[in-house]
Amino acid sequence: MVNKFLTADEAVAGVKDGMTIMVGGFLGTGSPEILMDALVRKGVKHLTVIGNDAGLPEGTYGAKTARGIAKLVEAGMVDHIIASHVGMNPMIAEGMNAGTLKCTLVPQGTLAEKIRAANYGLGGVLTPTGVGTPVQDAEDELGRKKQVLTIDGKEYLLELPLKADYAFVRASVCDKFGNFKCAKATKNFNYVMAGAADQVVVASERVAEVGELDADDYDIPGVVVDIIVEGEAKWQI
Asked: Residue 78: is it exposed, middle or buried by C-beta count within 10 angstroms (0-12/13-18/19+)?
């Protein structure tokens, strides 16, 4: 069996300036914090970051430090964020107003399905969301022109897949092959992002032996996981 284990710093060593990364989590819930900290230590710049949101800044809900993607924004590492909700992080509006940060908002369901399309090798997804609005005439987050298709008399937007160089996700438990599952609300974008990048890195609270848990206990197959990092802290907001 291939050894997929690296330290957090080794796991992010291949991330270079200007790359596109995905980060799992939902407003600080289920983000791989050990990997965000490693990225901050590495100090890469000009990243395009794909996530549900922009994380939580220091002090939000009593957090002693920033959480999730907010750590990268706080460190000035992000040039473009593609997300569905950024209102909890005032650094995004500040960066947009200063002209130092681009923010592209994508409806949450559309964002998830665009990522899923990349994960499963689909050519795109059809959605009625945005039809008949300025959205259908605008380019997407990567500058690609939208198409309107009519099927059975109803119009849909063709939303193209959204892929990254790296996907950083978090597991409650994984085995040594990379099969993993997330507890409760930490599933969120961690599941759709696993497989939607050239390199998938999972940071796990617990690592089990292969066969220690029933295969049916896992939700995501290890075949999509390239790197495993142990030591993710117990889930918290």
From this structure: buried
Span 144-175, pLDDT tens digits: 999 999 999 999 999 999 999 999 999 999 99
Cα separation values, 191 from 24, 112, 150, 204, 224, Å: 8, 10, 31, 13, 11
Query: pTM for the whole thing?
Result: 0.96
Nearest to 173 by CA among 181, 162, 185: 181
CA 104 to chain centre: 14
User: In this structure, are residues 165 and 197 in contact, taking their beta carbons and an 8 Å threshold?
Assistant: yes
Please state, in angstroms and rounded to a whole number, the distance separating the CA atoms of residues 225 and 82.
23
Is residue 123 classed as helix, strand or coil in its secondary structure?
Answer: coil
Distance from C-alpha of 35 to C-alpha of 222, rounded to nearest angstrom: 19
Tokens describing residue 99? 């002209």
More confident residue, 58 or 152: 152
Six-digit token string for 201? 């890195």
What is the tens place of the pLDDT at every residue in 205-235?
Answer: 999 999 999 999 999 999 999 999 999 998 7
Nearest one of 164, 189, 163 to 32, comparing CA atoms = 189
Classified as helix, coil or strand, 150 is strand
Could you tell me the end-to-end alpha-carbon distance of the chain, in angstroms, rounded to an integer? 35
Element containing residue 168 per DSSP (H, E): strand 164-175
- 48 φ, ψ to 5°? -100, 125
Q: For residues 114 and 80, what is the distance between their CA atoms, to the nearest angstrom?
A: 17
